[in-house]
Description:
Blueprint: H1 2-20, E1 28-34, E2 48-52, E3 55-60, E4 81-90, E5 93-101
Parallel strand pairs: 3-5
Antiparallel strand pairs: 1-2, 1-4, 2-3, 4-5
Amino acid sequence: MKNIFLSLLLFVGVSLTAQGKKEPSKTQIVEASCGQCQFGMEGHGCELAVRIDGKPYFVDGTAIDSHGDAHADGGFCAAIRKAEVVGTLKNNRFIASSFKLLPEERKDHK
């Protein structure tokens, strides 16, 4: 009985320790755009979103208009752009600790 109790106590302790650890944030290049206009997400107006591994997430920590006019040519409502981000996924949202919009890729005409 004592061994069962000690095993259970050890299991609970390891489980609680594992739950408290956060996955470290890493820099990654993602697609960024308006969640509704470009990614087809349900929402209440134009809101910044990123697509990670093919799945879109609304973004907390920065706003759609913090990176230029979203409705201008090349803006988030008109185009999907690349961004360098650092953050974590929480409650099906991307929590950005860093968000850097990358320059638009040039399309050279020959």
